[in-house]
Amino acid sequence: MSSDLKNRPLLGKESNCGILLGILFLFSIISLAFYKYIPGLVVLTIFCQATVIFLDAIIIKGQNNGVGPNPIIYPILTLILWIIFVPLYILDRKNYSNNDTQLKQVTEISTSGLGSGHATIRWGEKGLNPDTRRPVIDSSKNESTSITDEKKSSKLAVINWTGSSKEIQIKNYLIPNPLLYWTALQVENIEASCINLNLPIGNPVDEPKGAMGYWPRYSSISPDQRANYLEWLSSGRSTELSDIGYAFLFFYGLEYRALNEKKDISVIIPEVNLLLKNYTTSNSFNSYLSSFLAYIAAQQLSFISENNFSQYFPNLLTLSYDRVLVALSWHINQNKAIPWKLAYSLANTIPEAPKSVITHKLPIQFKQLFETKFISKFPGGFKIEPSARKFKIEYRPASPSLIYNYQGNSRVTRIEPVEINNPLGKKSQFNKIFSIWAETIEELKPASRKINKGDPALTSQAYHALPDSLKQELDHPEKSRWDQVIAEFNSEDDSIIVPVNSLATLIPIEKRERLTPTQSKLLFSTARDVGYVLIPDHRITGIPYRWDDPVALFPLPDKRTFTSDTYPAVAFILELGMSIALADEKFSPEEQEQLDRVIFGSFKLTSLDVACLKQYQQILIRNPPSLERLGTRLKEHLSDDKKLIIAGYLRDLALADGILDPSEYNALNKIFKAMGLGKNDIQVLFPSDLTSQPDEQPIQISRSSSVRTGELIIKPISNKPFFTLDPDLLREKFIDTREIQKILSDVIIPEDEELLDYSEEHGAVSKTTKSNESDSPIKQEESSGTNYLGLHPKYSNFLKGILTQTELSKIEMQKYSRNNGFMLDAAVEDINTWSEENYGDILFESTEENLISINSEIKTKIEEGAN
After folding, report:
1. What is the DSSP letter of 490?
2. In 10 A of CB 146, how many CB atoms?
3. What is the dihedral of CA 171, 172, 176, 178, to 10 degrees?
4. What region, left, alpha or beta, does residue 9 occupy, with left being phi > 0 and alpha being psi -120 to 50 degrees?
5. What is the separation of C-alpha 403 from the centre of its chain, rounded to a whole number of angstroms?
6. Whole-prediction pTM
7. What are the start-end ranges of the H helices in 583-736?
8. Could you tell me if 164 and 102 are in contact, meaning their C-beta atoms sit under 8 angstroms apart?
9. Residue 593 CA, distance from chain mean position
10. How many CB atoms lie within 10 A of CB 715?
């Protein structure tokens, strides 16, 4: 007897029990000759054969998971008619045996008598170990192949497993990395996913969802469904599925291999994770696979290291509750702090954390904001305090085969649970994580309200409502469109001057003469969100953008960077200075030098501030600011002594080149009057004889080199400066620019609130600064009592009087405005902006005859809305 036979067991599917029975059978025949002499010998040999058959059948069924010869019928029939049933049993048991030694010699194995659509199995290369070859299962043959060697064909197992790094071909389907069971035997009640080659295979068809039903088996699905299944397997198990039952069917085999045979765990775990990643629409499928992974990880917990941790937990953000517990337990065992991703999954799955639809409506933004907050509070991760208690991870099988084995078999009623360290034994320690979770929800609520129902895409409105920390991490959804438009206006010197309308259409904003304050704010903030500084800043100018106004865009080097707190006040100083410097319609080098000294030499500015201010100066040269508007703003927000300080600064700026020509003098007078300065105030700023200009003629006043008595002689000199001033004296008296910055900051910040925070939502003017209250000529309590919703109260009396008319001359309108203490142009502009925003159109319209007509339709709407 060879060493191979010596090493074989006496009984079972891999034994030589057939030879043993053959020997006993021959011995029984021989003993008949000695029946007269030893009659009990025949009976003894028959009982021995029946016993061997009984034990061998039981062992084979146990090895084949309940599939094998009947251990009761064969022994009984052997006792009754042994001469027939012992040979029959010897032949039958061969169908259930698996003799790998003889299988190595098989070059072709086929099933006899199979019709069309059935399969033939052959090994690709003769003489090679089948574990290292690709089995080719050819079901295209219609004719049966005769069995020339019974010993060869009888050595196939009941079910065969083909693992990774191999390929099998079934009919026309080449299946890479199969990880599945198959059989060529005509047997029943085998593993649910096992591909039985005796069953017909149809053609792939489209099916309604759920056509496979619950707990499908390969043997019970239709031929066309088998074709669908094989086609999916051949695609690499990654294509879209019309029915999740196909993925379930494949998973049954993986589950059976891991739990029942306890093999190929390292291969099965990544495959199940891949299924979870590819097929996310079925809650049932996700639940079964997540529970399976949690159970296997719990079993292997002591063998999981940092190197293979990601194999069991490839994505910490998508863990189920059970998997979170196992991952937390691993961190406790390893004495490691948990990262933000695991904290996210914990808060996302545990009932104690607040729940919100925001985690689904803004998933990317929620994760990023949670990450930022978590890392800010726990830069090294969150350390868990261990608990002495244990937690049991249980598992309910998905496969009908395992449900039968573990629940149908009375000897084994369930899969044994696995105990792990209870990570939630001290649950209160996680309140810090839950607090971050709740903060993230609250901060994203405004953005969530902007998301369209049924459309999870992040809109511009939703992006605008995101917290600033998130905007720094995310690109604006319309950034590519902005970049495309901006590229059309890039000049050779890298400056970007764009008309407002080109940007407004990207918001989108419909064409209109002037944007509303809210639209101006939106345009400015959207530019910042996209990655640009919009120049001018509407907070500085105090007025909304006009449709055709030129604006500059300066790219931000980093979305975390923006202009400094100093910038708005300095920009306003620049605007004031340019308004005077440009009054004579020219901008001298001396004036530029003086502005550079004041602007860039007197303030602490960032490089971004400097670049933006230079761009702003180019815009101001193209589109000089309104002197009346500037004066009105200063009047409304400054006390008298501060007005004089600003007026002195403007005077000195105009005299930067040592001369003051008539146009500059007129400009100063205009802005001083708009500021509300009286004649006495102006005399403080200029010599008494210069407070009025003589007959359109330029006047020159020179400082005498010696003091003498007498009166200055005013001599008309054409095309000469109005007067000159000693530059040295000018430098001595120049106002401290830091004081100017501080004063103008009070002008800019309230203007931002006034321009942008009139809201119907609050039912009244939502912001009224202290300076408004103290400096405005018309106090709120002095108003007419009529409330025009969202309009500054100072305009109430003025508007009430105007609404009694249908058309007025500008002279009449100026009279109304003077009586109420403000400039007409500013009042008309503010009221038109308010009416357009709230009622859809402007109230005042200019005509060619120097008249101002009142829009009757808007007038009616205003009167109806007034209290």
Report:
1. B
2. 7
3. -30
4. beta
5. 40
6. 0.53
7. 589-601, 607-622, 627-637, 640-654, 662-674, 679-685, 727-733
8. no
9. 50
10. 9
Chain segment 730-745, per-residue pLDDT in tens: 444 444 666 777 777 6
pLDDT at 112: 31
Nearest to 400 by CA among 591, 194, 565, 610: 194
Tokens matching residue 192: 């649910």
Residues in the chain: 867
Q: Which tens digits make up the pLDDT trace of 568-604?
A: 888 888 888 888 777 767 777 877 877 777 777 777 8
pLDDT of residue 274: 94
Q: 233: closest CA among 219, 244, 247, 243?
A: 247
In this structure, are residues 731 and 724 in contact, taking their beta carbons and an 8 Å threshold?
no
Query: 220 phi and psi, to 5 degrees?
Result: -105, -10
Contact 551, 500 (CB under 8 A): yes
579's CB contacts (< 8 A; 6+ apart) are 620, 624, 625, 627, 630, 667, 671
CA distance 181 to 261: 12
- Cβ neighbourhood burial of 283 (10 Å; 0-12, 13-18, 19+): exposed
Phi and psi at 419, nearest 5°, equal -90, 135
- The answer for residues whose C-beta is within 8 angstroms of residue 407's C-beta and 6 or more apart is 413, 414
Eight-class DSSP state of 386: P
Local confidence band at 806 (pLDDT 50, 70, 90 cut-offs): confident
- DSSP H helices in 472-548: 479-487, 500-504, 517-530, 538-541
Rounded-to-integer distance, Cα 613 and Cα 599, Å: 9
